[in-house]
Amino acid sequence: MEVPGDARAPEPGENQGLKPCLLRRNHSCEQYGVAASCLEDLRSKAYDILAIDKSLAPVTLVLAEDGTIVDDDDYFLCLPSNTKFVALASNEKWAYRNSDGGTAWISQESFSVDETDNGAEPKWKNVARQLKDDLSSIILLSEEDLQMLSDVPCSDLAQELCQSRVTVQGLQNTLQQVLDQREEARQSKQLLELYLQALEKEGRILSQQPESKAGFSDETDAADTGLSRESASEIALSSQILTALKEKPAPELSLSSQDLELVTKEDPKALAVALNWDIKKTETVQHACNQELSLRLQQIQSLHSLRNISARRNSLPAELRSPKRAKRDPT
């Protein structure tokens, strides 16, 4: 006689043993929801759902976030629901996608939407959804977006994020701390620049017209480069970014990571003309933007690595072996 509720191993295909997963191809943004009872079941469904030619068998399943090869059912069952998988055909190597590593700003559309455009929602709601998807993206936001979310009424933000007011109040405190840290970094850079300028001035031979030279420096920067102002039309940066570069001290701290990437990709000569700067100053600012962007990406990757390690340490049996890594596509 079978006892009701008696535990038994689920058979493949039984609903009670299905694990929801997200599945996509390498180098693709489209992902599909799949329910699988085991690793082999997921691999089998990958052929049909992702239209993988059977001649490219076998398919290797890896974690989208870091390329960990999943080839053990026990490991598969320990993973949380809706884990993202990438299906690699036999001729493919795993390639890291920024959208999987918390830097979705690179592939997402810009959030700088006019609040009144076509009756669109307030901009802060779009930014809030970005945080809802990945809280670590706080690091990637511009100071304007950070301040905007800090100023949103706690109850409105709590409703948008589906969190308690206490949790959202803590989030807003964190946003303010990030703003404070950037301001402290800006002040430190300004003090360092003033100190270096004082040293340079002290050791410099007094010229006949120092003030006159300084007064015309900004006006002659572009002329000194020997560049045509027509090249300024080649700039793809928005007026908002250009204004921040011109007016903000340490502008790399004010811009979002998406804007930083745009600045670093601009041609230095065209950017120099657009800003009315000389090449040396332009390249210095681009270098600072590149360093700030690299720092933020490193912080994001570190947070995700710590989060993954913590989650696996709490969920995996101690006897499971260390995971293997898929070979990374150098391209």
UniProtKB/TrEMBL annotation:
<feature type="domain" description="CIDE-N">
    <location>
        <begin position="17"/>
        <end position="96"/>
    </location>
</feature>
<dbReference type="GO" id="GO:0000785">
    <property type="term" value="C:chromatin"/>
</dbReference>
<dbReference type="InterPro" id="IPR003508">
    <property type="entry name" value="CIDE-N_dom"/>
</dbReference>
<feature type="coiled-coil region">
    <location>
        <begin position="168"/>
        <end position="202"/>
    </location>
</feature>
<dbReference type="GO" id="GO:0019904">
    <property type="term" value="F:protein domain specific binding"/>
</dbReference>
<dbReference type="InterPro" id="IPR027296">
    <property type="entry name" value="DFF-C"/>
</dbReference>
<dbReference type="GO" id="GO:1902511">
    <property type="term" value="P:negative regulation of apoptotic DNA fragmentation"/>
</dbReference>
<keyword id="KW-0053">Apoptosis</keyword>
<feature type="region of interest" description="Disordered">
    <location>
        <begin position="311"/>
        <end position="331"/>
    </location>
</feature>
<dbReference type="GO" id="GO:1900118">
    <property type="term" value="P:negative regulation of execution phase of apoptosis"/>
</dbReference>
<dbReference type="InterPro" id="IPR017299">
    <property type="entry name" value="DFF45"/>
</dbReference>
<dbReference type="GO" id="GO:0005886">
    <property type="term" value="C:plasma membrane"/>
</dbReference>
<dbReference type="GO" id="GO:0070242">
    <property type="term" value="P:thymocyte apoptotic process"/>
</dbReference>
<dbReference type="GO" id="GO:0005829">
    <property type="term" value="C:cytosol"/>
</dbReference>
<dbReference type="GO" id="GO:0032991">
    <property type="term" value="C:protein-containing complex"/>
</dbReference>
<dbReference type="InterPro" id="IPR015121">
    <property type="entry name" value="DNA_fragmentation_mid_dom"/>
</dbReference>
<protein>
    <recommendedName>
        <fullName>DNA fragmentation factor subunit alpha</fullName>
    </recommendedName>
</protein>
<dbReference type="GO" id="GO:0060703">
    <property type="term" value="F:deoxyribonuclease inhibitor activity"/>
</dbReference>
<dbReference type="GO" id="GO:0043065">
    <property type="term" value="P:positive regulation of apoptotic process"/>
</dbReference>
<keyword id="KW-0597">Phosphoprotein</keyword>
<feature type="region of interest" description="Disordered">
    <location>
        <begin position="207"/>
        <end position="229"/>
    </location>
</feature>
<dbReference type="Pfam" id="PF09033">
    <property type="entry name" value="DFF-C"/>
</dbReference>
<comment type="subunit">
    <text>Heterodimer of DFFA and DFFB.</text>
</comment>
<keyword id="KW-0175">Coiled coil</keyword>
<dbReference type="Pfam" id="PF02017">
    <property type="entry name" value="CIDE-N"/>
</dbReference>
<keyword id="KW-0963">Cytoplasm</keyword>
<keyword id="KW-0007">Acetylation</keyword>
<dbReference type="GO" id="GO:0044183">
    <property type="term" value="F:protein folding chaperone"/>
</dbReference>
<dbReference type="GO" id="GO:0005634">
    <property type="term" value="C:nucleus"/>
</dbReference>
<comment type="function">
    <text>Inhibitor of the caspase-activated DNase (DFF40).</text>
</comment>
<dbReference type="GO" id="GO:0006309">
    <property type="term" value="P:apoptotic DNA fragmentation"/>
</dbReference>
